[in-house]
Write a structure and sequence with these properties.
The complex is a heterodimer of chains A (322) and B (261). Chain A is mainly α and 322 residues long. Helices cover 74% and strands 2% of the residues of chain A. Chain B is built from eight helices and twelve strands. The chains are: A mainly alpha (322), B alpha/beta (261). The structure holds adenosine-5'-triphosphate and magnesium ion.
Chain lengths: 322, 261
Amino acid sequence: MTLGRWSKLAALARRQGVLIAFVLLVASMFATTSTFGTYQNLINVLQQNSIIGIIACGMTFAIILGGFDLSVGSVTALASVVGATIMIDLGVPGIPVGVIGAVAACLLVGATNGWLIAWLGVNPFVATLGTMTVVRGLIYVATNASPRFGVPYSFTTLGMGRVFGVPNPAIIFLIVAAVLGFVLHRTRFGHYVYAVGGNPVASAQMGVNAARVRFAVYVLVSLCAAISGIILVGQTASATPQAALGYELTAIAAVIVGGAPLGGGRGRMGGTIVGVFLLGVVANGLNLFGVSPFWQPVATGLILIAAVAFDGYSKRGGFGFV
Amino acid sequence: MTENRVGDPPDALLRAEAINKNFGAVVALQDVSLQIPRGEITGLVGDNGAGKSTLIKIISGVLTPDSGVIEFERKAANFTSPAEAREQGIETVYQDLALAGNLAVWANVYLGRELTVGPKILHILDKRAMLSKTGEMLERFIRNVPPIAEPVELLSGGQRQVVAIARAGAWGSKLILMDEPTAALGVAETKAVEDVIFGLKRQGLTILVISHNLDQIFRLTDGVWVMRRGRVIGYRQTARTHPDEIVSMITGAAASAGAGA
Ligand SMILES: Nc1ncnc2c1ncn2[C@@H]1O[C@H](COP(=O)(O)OP(=O)(O)OP(=O)(O)O)[C@@H](O)[C@H]1O
Ligand SMILES: [Mg+2]
């Protein structure tokens, strides 16, 4: 008699495993530390995870497509260096120019990735590893590896300001997630991302232009990285050539933890958001308990492996919501 | 000389004339000419490597012939891509590869021809309409429509093939080419697929089906073309021939078989 209930619970755990883990994690954080639930701490969690979150939203497309993008960290740094440099040189009137310049530079990298992968058939790992290294190198060359200071202070409104108590980066993350979630789950383009990721040959047979879909996805990923890079400038009024090192792996980890396996065809935007905050809350918890930050990558790696092992065990990724 | 071959079917929907195709030193098709009668189910049989798949790929635009012409509805139809063939109403059902397993049945049926709502540029999917219309479309050919909201990978092999074939017939197509559509299926599933093929015929479609299963050929077809080593050996109306005759044509065992090239 309870067997039915148990198997129902098991099925729920299989489908919503990460969400359940996340809810349990947050609940236990509330229970064990009084600081976790404070307004300031929750704001911190939002603030600290928005930049990775925006990148992860783009990465979700690349992973569902059956690829991934290693260049996002470099592209994020590129956006912040290009944007900051222009803003420093031109002052306050140069802010829009800086934003446009940053986005343009990143789109160029994204278009290069897309072109390599979609039309030259270069493996996504190789293509984006290449652009990741080249872009980072070019940033070092252009800046002589030294940071850029002196962005007009007013620009920090973007990174530090709040609306109704919510940090602006979190609001931007929310907007990006909502828009891209809509694109992924409600539009024809998102549909094609799943189709090409699931079976490129069948999609092509049915008239889907797989190359165009791939190209667009890698451009989209770089656009997300550009947004993150610009927010980074807004948080510090400066840009460092070493910015966003390793962000690509954190973003990929968040997407995978959120239920989109490498290999493509599966995953949801809602899952990615849970993945981002699961990793974020764990990092925050380690911090609150006074654990050295050096343990944070250890935790991220273990969660990643656990999530993938669990998914392999239950053989059914993805979330039933959003 | 091919015009008055004994047993040539009348009113051809598609004609192939003197098709040649080589792969390097391999001669896959040699002077192949045949007609596919309108509204019928036509079989295409022959031993492994006889050139059946190559011929289907040429008709559907996947391959281009070295020489020869294809005529579809009395118009030249040497297609250079499957998309071109599809536009003219020629659909191909492959044994695998045809469906995206991660997509729902309805999404596969509408893949590449999605219905959208709202502002044109946004291409917002009209899932509700596609769901309900998929049901109607499949019901035209299938008695037991599989759950259309489920991912295709959760269906059995037979259900998948049924979906693939019904999809091919659902879009106002005229000619459906099938390369061993039941090769991987059990008895019951084969029966279900054959039912769908009959369903297509009832709707007035023309079908060319490759099969190694002669029982199936005799169950399904109105006529059958036999190929051997890249050549067309001949055509027989199914009702007027016998499996033994077809086998001897396939293997070249009896001299009486060779009416063709
Ligand atoms: N892409 C290719 N490259 C080289 N040779 C090929 C290619 N495709 C087919 N062939 C050769 O052409 C000949 C005809 O092959 P085809 O696949 O058309 O035969 P078939 O009648 O479909 O055989 P089966 O019943 O085994 O499917 C064979 O000798 C095959 O090896
Ligand atoms: Mg074959």
